[in-house]
Structures are given as C-alpha cells and as structure tokens.
Amino acid sequence: MYSFKEKQKHFSELQNPDAASLDLKLLTQKNPLHPLLRKFSRSPQRYANEILYQLLDVAERDEIRNNRRPPVSKSNVVNGSQSSKKETKILLIEKSEKVENVTPESSDPDQQDKISDVTDQIVETEERAEEAELRVEEAEERVEEAEQRAEEAEERVEEAEERAEEAEERVEEAEERVEEAEQRAEEAEERVEEAEERAEEAEERVEEAEERADNAEAELEQEKKKAATTSKPVSNPKVKSKSGKSTPKSTGTTSPTRKSRQPRSSTTTGS
C-alpha cells in the first residue's frame, strides 16, 4: 500500500500506545486471519508499535486516524437536550401539582406568597428551558461547523504533506545536481591545471628555442667577423689563356731553342 519511505513516515507520525486497542480492533477487521492477532491481544499496549506497523499494510493513514477519533454524533447532543427537556417538564408538572393542591379556602397570605413564588419559578424555568433549547441548537450548529473545519483542516494537512514530499524530492534532485556540478567543476579545474602546466612547458620550450636562436646568430656573427679578418686581397693576378695555361710576357728576343724558319728556295729539282 505504501512504499517503505512513506510507511516509515506514517509510522513515526501515528505512534500512540494509548490507541493500541483501537488499532488492534481495526487490524482484526481488516485481516481477521493475521497470524499475530493472538499475540497482540495479550497486551496491546506492549505491542502497540508492532500492531501499528502491521496495520499500515492493510489500512490507510486517514482511516487509522478516523478509527482512533471518538465519534461525535448529533444523537448525543439531541439525547442530552431531550433528557433536559424531560427533566424540565417533570419539574414543571410537580410544581404545578403542588399549586393545584393548594385551595383558596385553606390558603393564607403566606401560602399565597408561596404560590406566586412557585408560579414565578415555573415561568423562569420555562424561560431557562427555552434558552437551553436555543443553546443546544447553537451547539449543534457549532458542532457541524467544527466538523466541517476539521475536514477542511485534514484536507489542508494532506495537501501540506504532499507539498512537503514534493519539496523533499525537489531538494534531493537539487542536491544531486549540486553534486554533479561540483564534480564537473573539479574536473574542469583539473583540466585547467593540466592546460596551465602544458602552457608553462611550452613557454619554457619557446624560451629555450629563442636562446638557441640567439646563440646561433651570435656564432654566425663571430664567424663572419673571423672570415673578414682572415681573407687577403689578390694583387696582379695571372692572365690565363684559353687553354688554361699562362703565357709569358714578350721580351723582344727569340727563344734560343727556336730556330727561324728558312724560306724555301725557288729552284725546283729536275730542272
């Protein structure tokens, strides 16, 4: 009938050892074959909590409350008003009989005064009886109004309990969302830390690369300076011939090794 959570909630709200007998009676009506009825009947107050816990399996919370509530019926009020009316009538009859038994011949002034007092009492009693009837009617109306207010109050209590349960569910859902958000935040922080570490490592590598580039440029400048200081200018370079051999300068004399070619004679052989 109820979930475990709802049953525990109603159980804590309805605990009342004084109502154990009424709860046992309702449990007997709902489940006359319950195996623990004999045990519970030995001492209902002793087993009040067990009776209530078993009763929540077969009866609703409002039914248990209504069963515990003493019956307020109009018949009690009406019976009380009717009994008061009967008593008033009996009293009036007795007083009227006393007045009728008094005759004018046997009466004296004192007796006449007593008769008038009794008559006045009768009138006052009738007026009080009428007022009592009016109060009874007003009481009945107030009882009806009180019952209506009680029903409305119970409905409001049920609505409030339902809203409280819904609010608890929303709180649980909100707590779950908060936990998930916290987890995501932690994961994001971890990723941020990792990114910062990678950024720091990249910056270090950039600085190292810049240092190596500066060192390379400095070495290159030094090499250029060394090359500029060690190189010499070339003076009177030799002119090479087309064959690639150098030709000596002319001195105006023939080489001793060469002979001048003799011109051929004009004479021919066989002339």
Task: Report on the biggest sheet.
Answer: none
State the secondary-structure class: mainly alpha
End-to-end separation in angstroms reads: 163 Å
Helix content: over 70%
Percentage of residues in DSSP E strands: under 5%
* Total beta strands: 0
Shape: elongated
* SSE string, helices as H and strands as E: HHHHHHH
Rg estimate, integer Å:
66 Å
Mean pLDDT across all amino acids: 77
Low-confidence stretches: 102-106, 239-246, 253-260, 265-271
Tally of helical runs:
7
Describe the structure.
- The chain has 271 residues and is mainly alpha-helical.
- Among the domains are: 65 residues, no CATH class; 98 residues, no CATH class.
- The chain contains 7 helices and no strands.
- Helix 2 packs parallel to helix 4 and helix 6 runs antiparallel to helix 7.
- The protein is elongated, with a radius of gyration of 66 Å.
- The C terminus is likely disordered.
